[in-house]
Design goal:
The structure is a homodimer of 215-residue chains.
Chain A: E1 2-5, H1 6-10, H2 14-22, E2 28-29, E3 31-36, E4 42-47, E5 51-55, E6 58-64, H3 71-80, E7 82-87, H4 93-98, H5 109-113, E8 117-118, E9 127-128, E10 133-145, E11 150-162, E12 182-184, E13 188-198, E14 209-210
Chain lengths: 215, 215
């Protein structure tokens, strides 16, 4: 096994280190964050740091870099209090990646990359029409992480839209059937193949492999 | 498309809602967190919430539920200040899942599930011998999230160990070649198949599909 120490890591070339460190956490989620400003100019940005915080209330977090590409995203969330998260499927992963280009603040990434904004009810943020599982969130907390000047945004899920066939009887959503992709590093995209669902683990009891339906 | 509102979500049966909401963020990382207490009793717990925070310094976050299974994990991190994160490969996903059983605090999950603790240098936390990519972290911040009583633990990466063939010339680690798995929902495990790496996105410029080596 290769062994790198913190001194070795500190000595790495900047972009090499970014690719390396971004590979360490494992596979990441691939989502598009949809927002708009008070004037209605839409913004769409790829994010691989969305993560589950809790189910009741239904909370999700994401890390935003104030000096990074999703800067408009944070400004818009502060203005409107609402945003959407749209899972990226294999059909739109190139368009999703292209949203990470540094477009001007007055340009909508939707048009630039060829994705379609759609709206529901009173949600003042655009969904991605092509996404098969998406939801809107009301912002709940914006927590600056002083340690490296990133920002943790926590939102509560308000509306969920999804292809109904993906929902299983026990509440599990088969996101593999939606061809949702996973990300590794900064730029690698992957489809998935299920090994198994596994039964609830208890001490001294063997696990059972479950079907996708949870049986 | 099926549409659920926040009222619909609030009305879901508790375990159904947990499975449903845990499916929304997309694919999650699969890692084992290794710790030990001041007496040297080891603990190992599965975590699907590890996420990248920054590359310089190299920071990673994870969400811990104080009333959940990784409770010992948090106690140990507070005692020793150090922990390991070990990527889960297809070879050990069942053992990894089994660590989520509620074992007694004086029992080591390593022995119970059949994984091997290994140590390096002055790191007072066990690595998983079977893991092909793993790293130790010095805890930097423990941030209670008042919104739902979970805890964000931020650590700085101090040692990285990995199968050397996975490292590409540009710093990308091919975690697919290590058979690292992805998680969906609470209990579904997936191997991956790379669609492509993609070139750095710039406005008005077509993306290129890159090989795993970044060419």
């Amino acid at each position: 096994m290769k062994h790198l120490t913190s001194e070795d890591i500190a000595a790495l070339e900047t972009r090499f280190r970014a690719r390396f460190i971004n590979s360490l956490s494992g596979f990441k989620s691939a989502n598009l964050v949809g927002t708009q400003d008070a004037k209605g100019i839409t913004n769409l940005s790829m994010i691989s740091s969305a993560f589950h915080i809790g189910a009741d209330p239904a909370l999700m977090g994401m890390i935003i870099r104030p000096d990074g590409v999703p800067r408009d995203t944070l400004d818009n969330i502060k203005q409107t209090g609402i945003y959407t998260i749209n899972q990226v499927s294999a059909q739109i992963y190139k368009q999703a990646h292209q949203t990470s280009a540094r477009y001007d603040v007055n340009v909508s990434e939707f048009e630039q990359v060829g994705l379609t904004a759609e709206y529901i009810n009173d949600v003042a943020a655009p969904f991605v029409a092509q996404s098969r599982l998406k939801f809107s969130l009301q912002v709940r907390e914006i927590i600056p992480l002083a340690i490296n000047n990133t920002i943790l945004v926590i939102g509560e899920i308000s509306h969920v839209l999804f292809v109904e066939q993906a929902l299983k009887a026990d509440g599990y959503l088969d996101i593999e059937s939606l061809e949702t992709i996973a990300v590794s590093g900064l730029d690698s995209y992957h489809t998935t193949k299920r090994l198994s669902r596994l039964s609830y683990a208890k001490p001294g009891q063997d696990l059972c492999a479950l079907s996708v339906d949870g049986d």
